[in-house]
Amino acid sequence: MSLQPDDIRRIASLARLSLSSDQSERMLGQLNGFFDLVEQMRAVDTQGIEPLAHPVAAMQDIALRLREDLASEPNNREANQRSAPAVEQGLFLVPRVIE
Amino acid sequence: MSTRLVQGYEVVIGFETHAQLSTQSKIFSRAPTAFGAEPNTQACAVDLALPGTLPVMNRGAVERAIRFGLAVGAHVAERSVFARKNYFYPDLPKGYQISQYEIPVVQGGTVQFYLGDELKTVRLVRAHLEEDAGKSLHEDFVGMSGIDLNRAGTPLLEIVTEPDIRSSDEAVAYAKELHKIVTWIGICDGNMQEGSFRCDANVSVRKPGQPLGTRREIKNLNSFKFMQQAIDYEVRWQIEQIEDGHAIEQATVLFDPDTGETRAMRTKEDAADYRYFPDPDLPPLMIDREWVEDVRAHMSELPRVMAARLVTQYGLPDYDATTLTQSQAMAAYFEAVVQACQQPKLASNWIMGEVSRRLNSGELSLEQLPVSASQLGALITRIGDNTLSNNAAKQVFDALWTGEASASLSAQAQVDALIEAKGLKQMNDSSALEAIVDEVLAANADNVAQVKAGKDKAFNALVGQVMKASKGKANPQQVNAVLKARLG
Amino acid sequence: MNDLHHLSLAEMARQLRERRLGAVEVATHFQQRAAQHLAGSNAHGDNTGAFLAVDAEVTQAQAQGAQARLDAGQGGPLEGVPIAHKDIFVTRDFPTTAGSRMLESYRSPFDATVVNRLAQAGMVTLGKLNCDEFAMGSANENSAYGVSRNPWDLQRVPGGSSGGSAAAVAAGLTPAATGTDTGGSIRQPASFCGITGIKPTYGRASRYGMIAYASSLDQAGPMARSAEDCALLLSAMCGPDPDRDSTSLDVPAEDFTLRLNDSLQGLRIGLPAQFWGDGLADEVRAAIDQALAELKQLGAVVVPVQLPRTELSIPVYYILAPAEASSNLSRFDGVKFGHRAADPVDLLDLYRRTRSEGFGEEVQRRIMIGTYVLSHGYYDAYYLQAQKIRRMIASDFQQAFTQCDVIAGPVAPTVAWALGEKSADPLASYLADIYTLPASLAGLPGMSVPCGLGAGGMPVGMQLIGNYLQESRLLNVAHQLQRQTDWHQQRPALASREVA
């Protein structure tokens, strides 16, 4: 398979990126080159193989660790918002959200 | 399932309900979940998705999910998986929501409730754990929105039904039953104004026997009243569209209480492609059977189980049993009253009747009820042994309500003292009654004549005279009997 | 002049403890050297561009604190010893950029767990080190703040993504550095710069405060000049972090120095046939053969093993890592922190311009790949298939470890290449990761040990891969090798020159 310019546009919009036209062109070539490299992988027979999502699961059974339900985080708003681009009355400001 | 048609169309409704779980801390962070704090003062580094932060799961949220699974007779999965639902939105700090996708923690189950006196069963598809988003505030800022992430990361249980619901009435009844369950088992405070219990209704219509129609999802129905209005409007709208030859397009709509109409939301661009994948930050959630059994052991009797018991144990009708199990408080009050008077049906009638009426008119909760279970029990005892007529009993109840009873005495002694003081004791001595009847007959020869001529009205007049003469203490049934005997 | 920067970590810690050295004196010495190597400033001919941030006051204050503890006879095992951190670790006292314009002048309100643990051990922070943007790269040419250069030849790359860390240690700007390894980002730059670096078993070191690239692969590790130094650092870095990282292992912290001197008698070293293919440069092959010969002298035996899916690890890695990255980097949206495009007309415009301005080309490329392979209709064919092959690769290793105790091979097919040589062709550098990717996908510990110089006098590293939690064994093998050889003692000329 080979990607088309439309694919690049669709993916870029999903990923919230705006690519310049020459960047899109470059990206198209590079991604198609990449997916050629990937083809060999698609041919592998993986019938009945469990996907490995967490590497250590190959070593031991893993289970999600659960913490006790305690609220111990203090209000740290000032430090947390120190690097925020736009804040007013403690709120993060963004262009109007239309619903 | 009996189907009610609207203009020849069958209404098909499925529900998705987001219940905020009543934990102290967030689902993946240690920030508090309390409602109404200053903006972003309860959003910690993890909730804000600051670089380098990672999620750590709250045991309390899992425990509540297990409780719900047991309450609706569902399967609590030994292994469930958290996945990332990817989309960009300002109230979603990470750019993805941690939810459960392919393998949810609660699978199947049913919710049963009465619609009128018909028992309905709605099947659940699943209930899964996920994190809530923050809030966008549009007031105060010109052309801008303010983002408050205090709510971000609040644990949610999303409860999804099969499309089993066939009317707006049934939808509301289902929602009320679900609300009752989550509050009864204490996993959610059920506060709809604060958004603790939010319903989305997927509504479609079809001609009977046809495949399912295209559905529109009504979002964030946060009151039972609006729920009914919104669904009724949506159903009418869809039928009109179809009748006018328009196809229904899948959409997400909001209900506007002011106009009473639903309107399509501005669809999030490419919202369709969430790119779900298992969250690599969270290993699978494993729930061993011991834990489930331990939770089961510590759960109070469930409403529908208790209702069934009230029927068998006290011989109550289904309707009474269901009504009395609306809340743990009411059910407990009922059983305490029965304990005191051994008169289940009378107790049920009084609680569903006089007690509820008084509470509603005074907008009081059962916790604020001034008449104790032992007092009501003592009162009912006196009705049961014919000491009090119903009318007299209501007067005693008034006195108990306004606190006339002297607290120093036992409940029974209080009630008896009030009966005595108010002279409400019913006259059950027949010789005394016969004497009164004879006086009345003697004094009302003309009525007697009319009765003999077959005029019932006159008979009632005589009954009234006797009751009057007995100062209301006579037992009406007895009066009837004696009069009939005399005039017979 | 003093040659403090040639002291081993163990020796430096001992002299500090015995008060023959002062923490402030040591810090000052390295601060002077580090200051000459700030990224973007080419005032000095020897500039490697290894440092992104230094802060004289913060470092001096930490050194004084360390000295106070030393004077009181208190302090941790590495009290007063300086270290610098890859800029992928968030720090309260220094800016954190992840090599990205997206985080220009970002200040974290908290320290990464690894940074905390090393501070607990008494280490003094010199500053933050250059790296590929969000750790995506093999040459440190993807940093928004300029390339980092190889101290052995400033016209060559130091490797990546922990290029600044490797360059700083090799140039003697810091006795130790932290790095992170997702697909080889500790081992490959260590190899290119002739130092020793180890990536522990996935989950050994907490990922809290390590800006995520690929969550199921990222792992922190130390980079220093010897296996012994790495053992000291790793002991301080590792340990469970149950409150902060759900993927950190429930394995207690370990003293990785205890088994350094175990005998190698009868050690079985597995040589995967697939690691010695055509792509491997002769000089690299020759250097590794020398090292293996030394190990045999110490009683080790070599056995052939098979890792049949070695080549597949390239597509598998470059599906999984970008997929996770595309999601991990969604939080950089110009709303809560970091770069934000000027005067956005609406929300979509804010998102798209912020991200395209803030992310460099390689990061955008991987976000595109990752978004595509997760998108509707492609998930099963790519992501799921890759995860299944990932399990097969992990099983291949378990099969191999039935026949050997450790696996040895090259870290990279060649020595460090020239600046710009591969930057035009991303695929070429992807292919160069072939020997480091398999252990990363399996979550196994791996390290790079210097084993001589190749073409142009550039260092060559030998890779050692152990089974899960076998870091001690790897360090033991490397340490014994380093007791017999002086490859790890060799320094670039630049490291011995006086600071200007």
Would you give an account of this structure?
The complex is a heterotrimer of chains A (99), B (488) and C (500). Chain A has helices at residues 5-14, 21-42, 77-80; strands at residues 66-67, 87-88, 91-95. Chain A is of the alpha+beta class and 99 residues long. The longest helix of chain A is centred in the N-terminal third of the chain and has 22 residues, at 21-42. Chain B is an alpha+beta fold and 488 residues long. In chain B, strand 15 (216-221), helix 3 (224-243) and strand 16 (251-256) form a beta-alpha-beta unit. The model of chain B has no long low-confidence stretch (mean pLDDT 92). By secondary structure, chain C is of the alpha/beta class. Chain C has helices spanning 9-17, 23-35, 56-71, 113-120, 163-170, 187-193, 227-237, 282-297, 313-328, 347-358, 361-374, 380-400, 426-431, 437-442, 471-484, 493-496, and strands at residues 51-54, 82-86, 124-129, 177-181, 196-199, 219-224, 268-272, 301-305, 406-410, 446-453, 459-466. In chain C, helix 2 (23-35) packs antiparallel against helix 3, helix 5 (163-170) packs parallel to helix 6 and helix 9 packs across helix 11. The two termini of chain C are 12 Å apart. The model of chain C has no long low-confidence stretch (mean pLDDT 96). The interface between A and C is large, with 51 and 76 residues.
Write the layout of secondary structure elements.
The complex is a heterotrimer of chains A (99), B (488) and C (500).
Chain A: H1 5-14, H2 21-42, E1 66-67, H3 77-80, E2 87-88, E3 91-95
Antiparallel strand pairs in A: 2-3
Chain B: E1 5-6, E2 9-20, E3 57-58, H1 59-71, E4 75-76, E5 79-80, E6 82-86, E7 96-100, E8 106-107, E9 110-115, E10 118-131, E11 135-137, E12 144-148, E13 155-161, H2 168-184, E14 197-206, E15 216-221, H3 224-243, E16 251-256, E17 261-264, E18 277-278, E19 285-286, H4 289-297, H5 303-314, H6 318-324, H7 328-341, H8 344-361, H9 373-384, H10 390-401, H11 411-422, H12 430-443, H13 445-452, H14 456-469, H15 476-487
Parallel strand pairs in B: 15-16
Antiparallel strand pairs in B: 1-2, 2-13, 2-14, 4-8, 5-19, 6-7, 6-18, 8-10, 9-10, 10-13, 11-12, 14-15, 16-17
Helix pairs in contact in B: 2-3, 5-6, 6-8, 7-8, 7-9, 9-10, 9-11, 10-11, 12-14, 12-15, 13-14, 14-15
Chain C: H1 9-17, H2 23-35, E1 51-54, H3 56-71, E2 82-86, H4 113-120, E3 124-129, H5 163-170, E4 177-181, H6 187-193, E5 196-199, E6 219-224, H7 227-237, E7 268-272, H8 282-297, E8 301-305, H9 313-328, H10 347-358, H11 361-374, H12 380-400, E9 406-410, H13 426-431, H14 437-442, E10 446-453, E11 459-466, H15 471-484, H16 493-496
Helix pairs in contact in C: 2-3, 5-6, 7-15, 9-11, 9-12
